[in-house]
Amino acid sequence: MTAPNEMAADLLAGVLARNRRALGRALSVLEDRTKEASWLLGQLYALSGNARVVGITGPPGCGKSTLVEALTKSYRGLGLSVGILAVDPTSPYTGGALLGDRVRMQALATDSGVFIRSMATRGAMGGLALATRDSVDLLDAAGYDRILVETVGVGQDEVDVIRTVDEVIVVTVPGLGDEIQAIKAGIMEIADIFVVNKADRPGAELAVRDLRAALEMAEAEGVKPPILTTVASEGDGVDDLRENIEQRYDAMESNGDLLRRRFLHLRLRVENILQRRILAAAADLLDLEAELVIAWEQRTDPYTLADRLFAGVLSHYGEPGRPRG
Predict the structure, then answer these.
(1) Where are the alpha helices (DSSP H) in 115-201?
(2) Terminal alpha carbon distance of the chain
(3) Confidence (pTM)
């Protein structure tokens, strides 16, 4: 497919050359959902699928950023390139990320084998930016060997991280008062590895025991996730974590779990795109806001209104001469 304009073609070339400036501009295009975004993703998607994508999540204050930095250094020690997507709370004033990557990961900023991007959630549920998966594909196609996705740590909705990554690392820390809270509300089910960070603090052994007890009580089938301890600020236990990540990834490749998980990712992404497009069509073509006002005044139930709007969208695209898709 021909590029929509010269800028899009230049961006694609820059991404494939792993030019930092081009990567930054391309990621902005994806986040802003400009007209070039769909074309760019169409070109990059076939080149993706080679990187190992790891999500790091957990409650605020557990040291996720420090752990991501330490894990990145461990991978760099093996000569592997790393892309980092740090998903931060959205500023209510600017719509941008409140926590900048340069503030949190200064030591990595000058490493040519590392690319860091802070992304704003922009209201997305689950602590993930709407464009996170698209951004993963971009960094994957650019040739980064490992991609680390650090999420906000917003609690129950954090389970959405499983929609984006190959492996999920759930981080907790001693002294939260109730260590099990880190794995409540669905977090336990999505974890591939648990990490008790800041394990030099009092209560680390208790945190490990509580996690192990919670896993024993869970009715989940299969192998229980390992529980590791780290002191990320000192680098302690980080190489062991990296080895566990790689070993699990190798096992997922050999038993087919990786392909099954990635197929699920595709299904969820397509469903999400369809939902957004149908909603956008209802808003643009049928004046959703006006329909809501009328329904409110007439006490029309939401199911009837949704059926009417959906039928209206289908009717619009089904008319002769109307575009389909």
Answers:
(1) 132-141, 187-190
(2) 17
(3) 0.86
